[in-house]
Design brief:
Elements (H helix, E strand, L loop, with lengths): L1 H39 L18 E6 L2 E8 L2 H6 L11 E11 L12 E6 L5 E8 L15 E8 L2 H4 L11
Length: about 180
Amino acid sequence: MPKADSAKTASELKFTKFYIIYFVIFFVVMSLFGVYYSLQNRNGNETVSICETNPTLETKELVIDKVTLTAEVAASQSEKYKGLSGRTCIDEDRAMLFDYDSPGNYCFVMRDMNFPIDMVWLDEGRKVITIKDNAIPENYPAESYCPDGQAKYIVEVAAGLANKLGWSAGKQFEF
């Protein structure tokens, strides 16, 4: 009988060692994830982005009513054509800024879009002239969205953001 007890004890030791090693590895891996996310979120009140961006595009800070958005700038014709098409989402602190050389009646469609957005047309002075809230991809190709006047800039943001922040015609953007 003593031999059986020692075999059971050896088996329990191997089992215990396995769990200790497993928990140490688990703790190390979770700690590394924590360090990674804290580096991504240095000031403690930003959220980690879950939406993709295009790192090749220039960015500008847009400010309206003390709210700052980081905007990717679509400047070339191909960048304007693509816009946010093909992406899965846009974060609430991000935007896409379309910058045209001169004011015009620039209409937009939801071609290859995967999520709804708000579209905001700005005049040369960067004041809001038109807002189309909650433009949905399902309306393509039947519907296009146009400004009520000549626009030089168009800002696209997450659906509902313009209403949530109280944007309206005449509001001033700074960038």
